[in-house]
Predict the 3D structure of the following.
Amino acid sequence: MSTSTSTHYPACPINFENQNYTIITSRCKGPRYPALECCGAFTEFACQFSAAINDLGNQCAQTMFSYINLNGGYPPGLFANECKDSKRGLECKGTPPTGAASTYAITGHGLLLTLLSAAVFLLVVGGIL
């Protein structure tokens, strides 16, 4: 009998494997990874999935960050450390895919926890922790 301390979360309903990451990889380039370009590209990509990645009850944020890193070869925590718009979190302007509002946000606590979880996940996967 084995014991496990990991928590099982439902799979993400979004297929991040087949997303187009060109918006990020074409604008966010190392070795300097300029915050303005990287965060702008990240916001443009991530805001279309804000409801799913802000849901801490699934694996969407971790999955998304894994695929962003896989496609762009970014250092762990790059977006979590650089992309902070306000106390509310990452501001997403425009019409969300659901058409519910003209301005919406991946809210502060949810975004912070999501980004920190993703950063720790990437550090663990990268063998740093």
Q: What stands out?
A: DSSP finds six helices and two strands in the chain. The radius of gyration is 15 Å.
